[in-house]
Amino acid sequence: MVKSLWLSLLLTVLGVVVQTPISVLLGVWAAGRQRNRAVLSAIYFVPLLLSITAVSVLWRAVLDPNFGVPSQAKWLFGDGNLFGTQAGALGVLVFVSTWQFTPLHTLIYQGAARAVPGVLYEAARIDGAGTVRQFFHITLPQLRNTVVTSMILMVVGGLTTFDTVLILTQGGPGTDSTNTAYYMYQKAFKSFDFGSASAIALLLVLVATLVSLVMVRLTGYDRMRSTMEGV
Amino acid sequence: MKRHVRLLRTAVVGGASLAMTLSLAACGGSGDSAGGGSDEIHVLVYGDATNKVEKQLVDTFNKTSKVKAVLDTIPGADYQSKLQTIISGKQAPDVFFNWGGGSIKPFVDAGLLMPLDDFIAKDPGLRSNFLPSVFDTAVVGGKPYGIPMRGTQPVLLFSNKKVLADAGVTAPRTWDELLAAVRALKAKGVTPIALGGGDKWPTQMWFQYVYDRVAGPELFQKAVNGDKSVWASADSKKALGLLKELIDAGAFGTNYDSVKFTDGGSPALLATGKAAFELMGSWEYSTLQDAYPDFVKSDLGYGTFPTVAGGKGAPGNLAGNTNNYYSVLKNTEHPEAVAEFLKLMYSDAFVKGQLSIGNLPTTANTPKFLDGSASPAYSAYQYDLVKKAPHFQLSWDQAYPPAASTTIYQAVQQFFNGQTGPDAFIAAMQSLPAA
Q: Is A196 touching B (CB cutoff 8 A)?
């Protein structure tokens, strides 16, 4: 039980840490108006349109140790026992959800980046700031509220991850990827112990609420300070 | 402060609705009641392709009987949970499908099921027409509670004859021969044994057979009946030692936990010659027949599990899915009609119907019709094994009540991948509820 909560948190943190930088960079890049960027962003968006079940089944087949990619790339995967070790199983889970959900967050950042007033960049250029400085001193601060929104979405999604676990790892090896949502499923629909399962569900709601509240408080999101002061 | 109150309320309402979804799922579908003085018996079965035969039998029955049988099917995945929900209520069926053993033990304990002694006293054929090793699986506390009603699926050791020949080994009859074969195959660069460890139940099959060969069927029988000390016995430790020896010899390769049977991974290893053996239920044959017909024709071998020197289990003992069973609710209103219905389960029409869809029935009259089955030689081989088996061990996950399966799966997987040792395995098995 405690292990499953810990695993849920670990998966969530890993998801946020991996997905946020990728989607910020992709989103800001995609905010440019060039045609090639528009075409590529449309392609990047495709994984989000697929059903998560189909995506999981697909990756399960692609990562098969004997007939999938690992059998052809032994220098990278070794014996291909991805689903038989904890690091491998968690890695696959984080990778697949990143592959699927990065487009959503990219889209959010793209929209937000386009809303940053152009005058700020003009002023920065006049002051002699290059692309990198513009990104760190204008774009990122302007995206502050968006980062919080996107992170809360990731945290809530991460804590309740279930379908990928069910299809990719079934909580294995042993209990090494049994997160709280999957643990609840096992209790309810494998062991027919609906009492404990309901208790776990309730606990999950409490933890998710608590984490969201703490995040909102820590990030100052609740004060709704504008990013447009002085513009 | 108002905002906090609102957040708190959202949390509570959200939690309550989530909790409710679960508890509703637990009692879904109660309401309209069946039965209640009607002239019907309800027969509840697991919904799949076999329903064709069950439908035929119900139709045959209804032609002559005044009390009509109604066939209710529940799609596979939901069967167990739905049954659990309705069995003690007004909607309970008169007759229902089950797996014998642990799947009905809780219902027997709750006093819901009718012992079939009276039926058998009136018509001894209800017992004598079935193979004893199969019939015994549905005997709980010395009383019979189930009539076999589908096909048997013993677990066999399948092999790729070509790979064996290339490595110069023959199908092993003893544990030492198996170890020697493993070494020879490994030297050839072949994974000796394909294992769909990702599914977990294929791993469990190895425990079932090794425990049987070392300690005989009694050890597991005692364990299931609540004597937890047997898991810590010398025989149990010896069985675990043998398994450990096999795993450490590299018999299963290193990435078996990433392979599954259910997505076709492990049968593909066997058929393409990347592995030499696979321990699997008799359905392996039809799985391979569908995907690799040429392989089945020329190179597929099958045999029984090797014996262990000094072991107590008879070489003919089997493990696997003995059969499925019809059990009868104690408060059925038409016991005579139910008895008549159950007699159809050893009729010629039943046997022909099951064979026509690839199932192997376990009745005394089955051999008469084996020539008409899809693969007569294979069917005859299995029938012979089951008929001669001194004991047919029901799969562990089914011999225990459903609640135990998660723990069993975790224990066998963790023992195989070396995460836990014998002591942790023993402790896990001792933590299971008695069946």
A: no
